[in-house]
Amino acid sequence: xxxxxxxxxxxxxxxxxxxxxxxxxxxxxxxxxxxxxxxxxxxxxxxxxxxxxxxxxxxxxxxxxxxxxxxxxxxxxxxxxxxxxxxxxxxxxxxxxxxxxxxxxxxxxxxxxxxxxxxxxxxxxxxxxxxxxxxxxxxxxxxxxxxxxxxxxxxxxxxxxxxxxxxxxxxxxxxxxxxxxxxxxxxxxxxxxxxxxxxxxxxxxxxxxxxxxxxxxxxxxxxxxxxxxxxxxxxxxxxxxxxxxxxxxxxxxxxxxxxxxxxxxxxxxxxxxxxxxxxxxxxxxxxxxxxxxxxxxxxxxxxxxxxxxxxxxxxxxxxxxxxxxxxxxxxxxxxxxxxxxxxxxxxxxxxxxxxxxxxxxxxxxxxxxxxxxxxxxxxxxxxxxxxxxxxxxxxxxxxxxxxxxxxxxxxxxxxx
Length: 416
Prior knowledge:
Low-confidence stretches: none
Largest sheet: 9 strands, mixed
Structural class: alpha/beta
Order of helices and strands: HEHEHEHHHHEHHHHHEHHHHHEEHEEEE
Number of strands: 11
Shape: globular
């Protein structure tokens, strides 16, 4: 049972939350802009999360937040939890605003690239592009499911491999492993010999690129980062290694090398932007607690989130803002949503009923349609119940360690 202190903390957070109009005009909004100015401060990496990939209300809101952060705060890079190769490489090939939407639809996960709920976001990106402004789009996911990667990885890497002297046999081993990742990531992994040959080929490729011990130029530096990401994708898919570690490495490369000195918006699930793994490790609810208890000390130490790895790599620069819902519906998605498959956005499921002692229940009682909750004053040991880690479960956890703030929307909507 929750303590009275936890109940009181959720009630206090709800009472002190700052209301705003979820349909705000980013060019005019003041209460939310003022709140964000206090929360973000001078940090130049802002992570915007969602508790479900089917959350259309949050998607629409974050589209307006991107515009607000761009207009008022100078953030001009938008990094998606999406295909590192396709989105990062492909964005540089766009020359006309009319190409923006088709590019997003074919290279970013359906729930962000093709969903009607994302129309406002992409309309703004088009507007900036048309006006000659600066709002660059990139991706940091090691999983390459975009059209550009499916058709282009082998074609781009083959001449480079030939130039540096990678043998045909080694390159074909890389091609076979990559084909297995593209065609059967969620099925049984390929034979061990195929895996080992793939990893060996990538290691040899990297060695040849680095053999002169000279600092890589931009082109070879990007290929080195892409090869590291290809290696990490296979280790995630075949060996169970951390996807978050791989995504954080890609994001780190984008921050240091692709967009140095720029202010970056990171777009991902709430779970990935978590800045401290102890938020999950210290969860008190029976289900997660049982899973955590079964983890070895090594597994607990190795547990990583993009937000945490990035915060350690770039101290005092990362602000993580999660989102959560009170009631309503979200689009019902399966794992195929992450496999490049098209989604039927009209199929929805209800937002789970909130636990009476949760932050969401307290906010429902308050009656506001949209609020921002600042976690700045929370202590290390402050626990409260919420669905911030994922919409599918409510848990008592020390959320203030992992997020700087949360945005609550009362009414959930699907992606259609």
